[in-house]
Amino acid sequence: METLTALLGGFETALTPQNLLFALIGAVLGTAVGVLPGIGPALTVALLLPVTLKMPPVSAFIMFAGIYYGAMFGGSTTSILLKTPGESASIVTAMEGNQMARRGRGAAALATAAIGSFLAGTIGTLALTFAAPAMVTFALKFGPAEYFALTVLAFTAVSALLGSSPLRGLVSLFFGLGLGLVGTDLQTGQARFDLGRPELLDGIDVVTVVVGLFAVGETLYVASKLRGVQDAVMTFRGRVGMTRADWARSWKPWLRGTLLGFPFGALPAGGAEMPTFLSYLLEKRLSRHKDEFGKGAIEGVAGPEAANNAAAAGVLVPLLSLGLPTSATAAILLAAFQQYGLQPGPLLFQSNPALVWGLIASLYVGNVMLLVLNLPLAKVWVRLLEIPRPLLYGGILVFATLGVYSLNSSVFDLVLLYLIGLAGFAMRRFDIPVAPAIVGMILGPIAEQQFRRALAISQGEYSVFLTRPLSAVILVLVALVLVGPPVARWWAARRAARAGEPSRT
Amino acid sequence: MKKAILLAAVVLTGALSASAQTLGNLRIMAPASPGGGWDQTSRAIQQVLQDNKITGAVQVFNVPGAGGTIGLAQLLNSKGDGNLLMTMGLVMVGAIQTNRSKATLDRVTPIARLTGEYEVLVVPAESKYRTMADLVAAWKQNPGLPIAGGSAGGTDHILVGLLADAGGIDPTKINYVPFSGGGETLAAVLGNQVAAGVAGYGEFEAQIKAGKLRALGISSKKRVKGIDAPTFVEGGLNVELANWRGIVAPPGISAQEKQALVAALDRMHASKEWKDTLAKRNWEDLYQSGSKFDVFLKVEQSRINKVLKNIGLVK
Q1: From the candidates A321, A324, A467, A470, which should be mutated to test the interface with B, based on the most B CB atoms within 10 A?
Q2: Which CATH class is domain B2-116+244-310?
Q3: CA-CA to B272 of 20 to 30 Å: which in A122, A231, A423, B293?
Q4: What mean pLDDT value characterizes chain B?
Q5: How far is A16 from chain B (nearest CA, A)?
């Protein structure tokens, strides 16, 4: 009840014309930076920090919240239409959604992504409103051992991303794991694979790899195939929006994705990528259209897109209630709080309720705005594909280059981007999937650091992964995911054999 | 003819600005990403210098990477540029040594030390360690007591090394568990994953005030007003450490140029706006300029080198 009164007070703050305007500016800006590859919400908010210094804090945060959610909405657009994700949480969307677009279902993919994002964002914000304290207590139970177990679980999702040839998939995975090793080792402070270049000491930015492997690689590949072929503008057949069947196949993945994404976001070291991998795996396992996965299954877009938006809402739980940033954008938001002399944490809700509840209320408002903005835009975005391909991909290359340069203003990063882009081109040429490389690059370092951290804390006791209850539960889950399907198949085959029929799996 | 007028104009404005004792336009490099400590410091300086018309327009730009050493290398290449400054601090001193960076602070022109933040060591509120002495006693029994902090070789690690040394614990035997940043350290301490955690006071402030964490010690010389924590010195450990931030200029600038920059920062430090900024951001005033800062920088480098050798990060 108390929460409701506070929330209503928040809406009073958020619904003033001035703050509504800032929410709109934020939503539009956020969608724009989400659409552009390489430029993320963290950088946008960071660049706006000095500008907002003279603004009232509530208005600034309402705008930042719009950018934050907006970028998550916008990130799916280029992923689906052009297979050029701007950040790592939408690589699954880039695979499955782009397949849909290729089969003329681009608008439906965009719609399921937008509605899923809206639903997940709203449910996530509701959870943030009413369940934040409980979530935080739970999240703090996660130590390094649990995080390690979680990454093992997420690694099992790779099996769903490997594609037709396991060998090729593993090549890609290990390429990613190798890239993830570059840089200063956090645990010992020693440089690894830095080739004597100080630019490599901080490791390779995952954005550079995502943009390189996907956007640059895709562009080069398209260009190589375009030679001598007359440019055919992609046309879009069929209904623009979602069909009744699409709705029927989307609503459960939306909800499941939300349920996966939110807790991961709330975990101090969870992130938005792991739940998208897990959601994809889950949907593939549960779907009645398994054969469509990899060829444009709507569940494979709906689930992961809901998951990454729910995670975005989850990230605000530890940020607001503990002052604990769990993503790059959250870290910048924390800096923004400090710029106003505010310290997020348990006391902020008491010392500055107008700000906190105004911010939370504006998340609801922002979500509605984004849906209203993005659903009609889906039809406009799809027309992007009517641009002749040389111009379209030329444009992508320009934005990808700008985006990566904006990360560190470093020419070295550009060279790296194009080298990785060449690798991405070669991988496409030899039919090696690129997604496992990104998974390896993201999960590898987390798994390694958390594993070593867990052992440091236990002072060398390997049993820590099994004696800590949460970690043990997750590892049992991993075993079930790995052993379950073969056992089920074996069981089915046995029963089929007993019934005297030829077994087919 | 045009050229001559232009030249005259340049000479004239040069003479005018010299007589008014103001610097021209300045550029400040923040050797880190937007939003970080050096970036915030640079932008705060920019604002006060400009608003008080101490200098002309000030531009801040970011050159992030490798603990600031990439920015430092770029600064060393701008030899003789009297209108360029770079923010830096303790973290850079450590990074140069752990990264074995070729760019070092030996050649820069020190201008001033500005602000700083003290480090605190905290335990969860329900921890059995009530004082620093309790912790040191347990630490001596078991040097492998896990203590969390930021990345290896960073300020937090340096502090833990200094504390171990002062408490008579072999610094090579300590079990320092690095997390990526104060946020993760905070979660590890709150979740009772480790025995204690170390970070800048600001990272723990909200939780200390809310009673969720207990600060066993702070790395300042004397107790800090408004912070409920005894100093390490009070706890019997002779350790002082400030995560300071300062500002330097490129090598090879003239003595007059250096003097003008020092004077500008002196004026900035004396302004009301600067004091307000410090108060609002919770930055300690550690101002020191000119030859005092020159000496400090030298002493600090050798002290940090010794600690890093002690904890085995630098050979």
Answers
A1: A324
A2: alpha beta
A3: B293
A4: 86
A5: 28
